[in-house]
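Quick question about two entries, pasted in order.
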Amino acid sequence: MSNIIYNNRNMYTSKEILQEINKYIDELQFERDPQNLYAPIRYVLEKGGKRMRCILMTMAYNMYKDDIVTIFPKAAGLETYHNFTLLHDDLMDKADMRRGKPTVHKKWNDNAAILSGDAMIILAYQLICKGDATNHSKIIDTFSEIALGVCEGQQYDIDFESRDDVTIPEYMEMIRLKTSVLLGGAVKIGALAAGATEDDANSLYSFGEKIGLAFQLQDDLLDVYGDPKVFGKKIGGDILCNKKTFMLLSAYQHSNDTQKSELEKWVAATDFDPEEKISAVKAIYDAVGIKEICLAKINELYDEGMQSLDKVDVVPERKECLRGYVKELMQRDK
């Protein structure tokens, strides 16, 4: 199935894994009928992306075993589920584009997005169930729990849109469910499939969850302070749509009365110049040190994640690819 060649440590880099997992996913034909059900699924999976969850699962598996092709079905299953969530998110958000291409409900229609998304959940479970029976029931339980958690997180996100009293702990719980549990689940399933101990699997879950939280907060930060050429999208989108991010909620918490009134004015505004709004809200963020507050929280979560990785009972050399990949994701030099 694969032409991959082991390096001298039998450990794989993220680039090697990405190349092989892309090949594996491309070979998933989904040739059942009716084609109108499966064409949107192939379209979504062909659009690629970072395959971050696939890489994390494979690297966790590779900490214990060298035959990484064995974990590819489960990695592809998690990727299929993740893409299902994007398909339905795009429909709920009425988004027109995803990764530079029309979303499924724009290219086909709303019904196609709903039904093909439903089929993706079933396909994801089929893929997760493939392979040997090592820790099979624990893997299914883990996948089921994180899949349900993502739905819960999405509902919280929807609920927050109509609330003016969202707290920072509530926001952190929402992004934990909507984003981080999939990263934690990815590494936990990889470890379980390799026969890791329950302690190791739980430590890896904690590692993935904390890194996922740090990654999401970094995304919040980059939406305000990032370079559009590097970030890949225009800056200030969260500000324009009044998204209740860690940044905005922290600004409310740390602002004086005058600054809070100014924030509330911009959040309530329905007729405004986009650049003026971004500039005004960012000025308040600058004044109360929101960038530094957010960076401190990112660093705290990142360190907690790495401490959990340190607890995993394998030799340090077997952790280096995973550690290095996360540093790369977080744009870290240490």
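Here is the second entry:
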Amino acid sequence: MNTALTIGNFDGVHLGHRRLIRKVLEIADARVLTPALMTFDPHPTRVVAPERCPRLLTTLEQRERLVRAEGIELIDVCPFTPETARFTPEEFVSEIVVGRLGAGAVVVGRNFRFGHKAAGNVDTLRELGAKYGFDTQIVDEVTWRGTTVSSSRIRSFILNGDVSRGCRMLGRPYVLEGPVVHGHGIGSKKTVPTLNLATTAEVLPATGVYITRTFETSDSRQWRSVTNVGYRPTFNSDDRLTVETFLLDPLEADAPRAIRVQFLKRLREERKFENPEALKAQILRDVKRSQSYFRRLEPRNIYTGIDTSRT
């Protein structure tokens, strides 16, 4: 037995997931085990009930990057197939948890289910642990202001534009990332120049204007910014959703080829203006509000409001 292991989907790698990971690290350190995490690709619901499959907050690559940053050394991505879905709880434990990953300890949440038709629960896992020689540790859920932290709740917040509360449950800003692409050119001519983000993210914030922070993916450059998610109604544009970011700080070099945009706070809904001049005036008001926001919060960490004693 050589790993301390946690198992789950870990979509978003939110505060609840990070509590599991911290327990894994604690056990691994005490018992000289490798801190390990097992996740699934695709999401199991996409195989067993595709009509109920949620839109994911993070890609597999993002999840791997985030859990490694938390201290996980071994990541096992289990391909979830119809064959995998038919594993009984004991087959899952004997073939994967012990047989492939050599778990000496397994850390899961109280609502953990596994095996064919989710037949196994934490009691099943404890019984199988006693049989196969690993310890089972159950970690309680994390709450924020009396509300259970979960991927589904965070997803709802982001989709409704409440990125501030979504960020609190994630323990970090919600991020969209991807290449910078050419827009219609209208902004640079009639309002203000923007960076246009092409993203394949499944969860986008509700249409509107947001205070954001933008990072160059391939470099260390970063900028305070304002981002519009929407359909450009002032210009009677087509029905393509766009993510356009206006930088509050000087670019000082060539435009980045790829960016990550952190969503911090929603300023307002997107709306149609009488003309480009009226839109430009509103953008400048948005800029002033955003600059005031950053002045109030920097250099203080905007997430110090999280009750870390309960995470």
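Reply: The first strand starts at residue 3 and ends at 7. Residues 185-191, 302-311 have pLDDT under 50 and may be disordered. Hope that helps.
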